């Protein structure tokens, strides 16, 4: 990798986020045609338009790279670099006029996440994490909290509805040991963790485009994010994710999930 490669990757990622925001904001809080996908999650014209705009940039600037997108499928997954795209994470929030939806962008290089963006267009917040450089919100450095104790932790998840029954019982057991638990926020919970105002995020039923962008952000901010077995996240993970501010908190939370 050349010395300019991380900077060039970041430039492209920012261009992708700009393009997605321009499309999604054009449709936000307007009447939309809503389609139910095979997994029963809603998709809108805005999702598809935003991902198309991102793909157009990648096709023009780095056509050899792979793409793992939510709306328009997979391309060149044997490539050395793979962009993982979720144009609107939190489509239900988008549809209902909530500002807590975002665009997620992850970059895999050699199977490792080297860059992650959680972009929140309505809030005007862009959270960027890059391996070896750190994490930033709108250019200002951010870092996870120093929390090591479950009893002092603030935990968040999107909704009880994302869990299978056994997984819900595990989450409920863990979260009731925490100082505070909150629901909602979709991808914004990962940004809050990166910024030090949330200590734990635990979710299930996710896809790679839901968790690989946040992975790049959380790790760059000094946090830990894995599956529920403590294994690194990849394109082949089972969709159960735990993110923690510190290794000690991560270990303790995993033990409670496994009980």
Task: Walk me through this protein's architecture.
The structure is a single chain. With 259 residues, the protein is of the alpha+beta class. The chain has seven helices and 15 strands. Strands 4-3-5-6-7-8-9-10 form an eight-stranded mixed β-sheet, sandwiched between helices. A five-stranded mixed β-sheet has the order 12-11-13-15-14, sandwiched between helices. Strands 1-2 form a two-stranded antiparallel sheet. α1 (5-27) packs antiparallel against α2 and α4 (165-175) packs across α7. It starts with a helix and ends with a helix.
Structural class: alpha+beta
How many strand elements? 15
Q: What ranges have pLDDT less than 50 throughout 5 or more consecutive residues? A: none
- Could you report the average pLDDT, rounded to the nearest whole number? 93
Overall body shape: globular
Q: Quaternary state, please?
A: single chain
Radius of gyration: 17 Å
How many helices? The count is: 7
Proportion in helices: 25-40%
Provide the succession of SSEs: HEEHEEEHEEEEEEHEHEHEEH
Q: What fraction strand?
A: 25-35%
Main sheet characteristics: 8 strands, mixed
Q: What is the compact description of this entry?
A:
This protein is α+β, with helices and mostly antiparallel strands and 259 residues long. Helix content is 34%, strand content 28%.
């Amino acid at each position: 990798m050349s010395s300019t490669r991380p900077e060039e990757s970041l430039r492209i990622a920012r261009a992708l986020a700009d393009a997605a925001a321009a499309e999604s904001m054009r449709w936000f809080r307007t009447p939309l045609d809503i389609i139910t996908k095979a997994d029963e999650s809603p998709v809108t014209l805005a999702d598809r338009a935003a991902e198309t705009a991102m793909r157009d940039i990648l096709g023009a600037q780095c056509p050899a790279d792979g793409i793992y997108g939510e709306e328009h499928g997979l391309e060149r997954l044997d490539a050395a670099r793979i962009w993982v795209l979720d144009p609107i994470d939190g489509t239900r929030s988008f549809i209902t006029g909530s500002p807590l939806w975002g665009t997620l962008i992850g970059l895999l290089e050699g199977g490792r996440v080297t860059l992650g963006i959680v972009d929140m267009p309505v809030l005007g917040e862009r959270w960027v994490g890059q391996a070896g450089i750190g994490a930033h919100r709108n250019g200002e450095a951010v870092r996870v909290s120093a929390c090591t104790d479950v009893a002092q932790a603030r935990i968040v998840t999107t909704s009880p509805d994302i869990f299978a029954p056994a997984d819900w019982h595990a989450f409920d057991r863990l979260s009731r040991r925490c100082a505070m638990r909150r629901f909602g926020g979709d991808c914004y919970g990962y940004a809050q963790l990166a910024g030090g105002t949330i200590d734990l995020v635990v979710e299930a039923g996710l896809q790679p485009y839901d968790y690989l962008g946040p992975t790049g952000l959380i790790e760059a901010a000094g946090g830990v994010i894995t599956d529920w077995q403590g294994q690194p996240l990849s394109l082949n993970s089972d969709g159960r994710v735990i993110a923690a501010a510190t290794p000690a908190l991560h270990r303790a939370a995993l033990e409670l999930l496994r009980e």
